[in-house]
Amino acid sequence: SDHMENIYGYLMKYTNLVTGWQYRFFVLNNDAGLLEYFVNEQSRHLKPRGTLQLAGAVISPSDEDSHTFTVNAASGEQYKLRATDAKERQHWVSRLQICTQHHTEAIGKNNPPLKSRSFSLASQGSANSPGVQRRPSQNAVSFFNVGHHRLPTGKRVPIMQPDHLVDVREMMSQAEGQQRDLIRSIECLPVSGHLTSLDQDLLMLKATSMATMNCLNDCFHILQLQHASQQKGSLPTGTTISWLEPKISLANHFKNGAAQNFPAEINKPASVREEQSIAEPCQLTREPEEVNPDEELEDICDDKEDDLGAVEEQRSVILHLLSQLKLGMDLTRVVLPTFILEKRSLLEMYADFMSHPDLFIAITNGTTPEERMIRFVEYYLTSFHEGRKGAIAKKPYNPIIGETFHCSWRMLKSDVATDAGSNFSAHTPSEQVTLSKDMEGQTDLDYYTVKFVAEQVSHHPPVSGFYAECVERKMCVNAHVWTKSKFLGMSIGVTMVGEGLLSLLEHGEEYTFSLPCAYARSILTVPWVELGGKVNINCAKTGYSASINFHTKPFYGGKLHRVTGEVKQNTTNTVVCRVQGEWNSVLEFTYSNGETKYVDLTKLSVTRKRVRPLEKQGPFESRRLWQHVTESLRDGDIDKATEHKRALEERQRNEERLRAETETPWCTKYFLKEGDGWVYHKPLWKTVSAVQTQQTDTN
To answer: Where is this region: Disordered (predicted)?
Structure first.
């Protein structure tokens, strides 16, 4: 390759907490596939201080700044390096990635897959290998009595008929049982002693056996698809095929609302059988449903995630999971253990960002474009604190495709700031309860209502759409978010790809905005959430914009959860407001007239959302859909929660598979695809525009 040149130069290398960063002279040896470093350029003719094999390595630009990157070798060794600027970093990263890819592919070509043979952990190294020294007379294969069978060789196997598929399914079931026995035997070993459950070779054996079974299941499914495609169109109505999951009638395959019946399994709880089945057709109509806010009741659910609970007890499981992940690995399709879950869906988490509806409505009350932009920034920065449930970082449920969440908020008109001098409300929790009770006797004219709806519009990639509106104030917000999660070593990063649009119809203004990245840090100890990245808010009509930086904690010192930002007029480049502080604590707003305002988010009043009771919710509404998982987590029954969660995931996979086989596209319920985004089917700007057009025609 033209780019396979040897490059060299000085980079800073992080050594340890004591020594810190040091300049070292690095050489990329493309021919040998090595990254070497020396104390300085003059010592280049001497033996290198360190060498990394690049075959199988992962080169990862760091998200903490534009200069740092890491080289993670297949051996587990890691170099954390820093270039002088972003351009130099890109030069090194691109050349390292080219070299890594070249040598990784060369190893694959020179080492074809081995034929079926006996496998022994002891045979993986020499007699002096650490594995053999630890247990010279015993290996994992002899300990667990694992057997391998050679498949008969001969002519190419013809396409299997249904009876052959049944035989294969039976053999695979036996293999799955043996694999479960193997895993159980490993996990029953003591955590200390001669042979432990955390032995590196045994962890690798667990991961390999699991990956093998997953691969076999994928191959089996390909055979099923192959057979089904041959028979497509020739089957009489009512004919069934034996799939990997329970039999499904082809005449009643899932078509965004058609009935689908799974045979009940006697050994499973009724609630699990309910999750694996599909509700009646009349309940699954894809027609948008108008939710009456009067049916919604004030939410009394308060699931704070301040207790480590099962996370503390299941640390070995987390260690095992981490052993199977690579730096930079996409976690979208990785099934994470149930005990790290929050007791709510991601769709409901988006709703909790709207927990200050008074500040949301107050945006349109600003008397000038400058004031409205500042109010939007104030609201935006106060929304993230309530979006997190407690100090412990846990993961919301991954929404099922077609899942929806509805809620609303009611706000007394007297509690919404109208002029620039109005301050943030800071009612205590007891005062907030009193306000809620006082509102019960009010008429519709005394309060504003903010309605919210969210829908999971795509499964791969996972995309959510959400929309909120206040009809009385002619304002609404529409957003779509694609959550991309990556493994970053001792943390998990989630990038929120997408865009939001706030429409103030009274002023004819539209504000576009993005969302910051989120990080779950210290996942082996006490996990906590950190926000990071730069977001922008723009209003093309008024020429005002805001730039907000969520700062991740630096490697040394520094504050947690720091945020800074400024609002400016683009035409004159004049800064009209600056903000600094912590997004989960105290924010300081400094205005162009010299005034300063402090907002303590821990004392800011929270308006409880209103949600329909479970019995009035549809089968795909978040709380009803996940109710058995949530109840089991509240009871501390992780096994039962896992069973219910698995049932939902299996059902989703079945439906997705059937739609692919029958080439049936998924139809969303509330959101429509427009370009690269998703827009609510009946946004307020269309409704208001239609009414104004009708009035004009009448006049």
So the answer is: 104-136, 637-658
* Confidence (pLDDT) at 691: 59
One-letter-per-residue 3-state SS of 623-684: HHHCHHHHHHHHCCCHHHHHHHHHHHHHHHHHHHHHHHHCCCCCCCCCEEEECCEEEECCCH
Question: 672 - beta bridge partners?
Answer: 679
Measured CA to CA in angstroms, residue 347 lies from 275, 300, 469, 518 at distances of 19, 18, 16, 16
Q: Strands 395-397 and 341-345, how do they pair? A: parallel
Cβ-Cβ contacts under 8 Å for 205 (sequence gap 6 or more): 121, 140, 182, 186
CA separation for the pair 200, 124 (Å, rounded): 13
DSSP assignment string, 3-52: T---EEEEEEEE--TTT-EEEEEEEEETTTTEEEEESSGGGGGS--SEEE
pLDDT tens, residue by residue, 549-575: 999 877 666 788 899 999 999 999 999
Q: Residue 542 forms beta bridges with which residues?
A: none
Q: What is the pLDDT of residues 53-77, one digit of tens each?
A: 898 888 888 877 788 999 988 777 8
Q: Which residue has the higher pLDDT, 558 or 639?
A: 639
Highest mean pLDDT among 96-110, 147-161, 448-462, 518-532: 448-462
Helix/strand/coil (H, E, C) string of 78-118?
EEEEECCCHHHHHHHHHHHHHHHHHHHHHHHHHCCCCCCCC
- Cα(41)–Cα(485) distance, rounded to whole angstroms? 40
217, β-bridge pairs: none
Which residues lie below 8 Å from residue 326, measured CB to CB, with a gap of 6+? 58, 72, 487
Hey, what's the torsion of the CAs at 665, 666, 671, 675, to 10 degrees? -40
The span from the CA of 507 to the CA of 695, in Å, is: 19
Three-state SS string over 663-680 comes to CCCCCCCCEEEECCEEEE
Fold that domain 295-417+446-688 belongs to in CATH: Porin (2.40.160)
Question: Which residue in 444, 477, 453, 456 sits closest to 612, CA to CA?
Answer: 453
Whether residue 531 has pLDDT greater than 60: yes
pLDDT of residue 466 exceeding 90: yes
Tell me the mean pLDDT in the region 523-544: 86
Q: What angle do CA 26, 27, 33 make, to 5 degrees?
A: 130
Q: For the chain, which residues make up each domain, given as ranges? A: 7-108, 295-417+446-688
Residue type, 494: V
Determine the number of helices (DSSP H) and then strands (DSSP E) in the chain. Answer: 16, 28
Specify which residues 549 forms β-bridges with. 534, 564
How many whole angstroms separate alpha carbon 435 and alpha carbon 242?
Answer: 59
The answer to whether 505 and 685 have CB atoms below 8 angstroms apart is yes
For residue 175, the tally of other CB atoms under 10 A from its CB is 14
Enter the CATH code of domain 7-108.
Answer: 2.30.29.30
**Integer Cα distance of 497 and 514 in angstroms:** 8
Burial class (CB in 10 A: 0-12, 13-18, 19+), 270: exposed
Rg (CA), the chain: 29
End-to-end CA distance of the chain: 72
* Chain-centre distance for alpha carbon 496: 9
CB 11 within 8 A of CB 24: yes
Residue of 336, 341, 346, 276 whose CA lies nearest to 651: 276
Predicted confidence (pLDDT) per residue in 114-125, tens digit = 443 333 333 333
- The pTM is what? 0.58
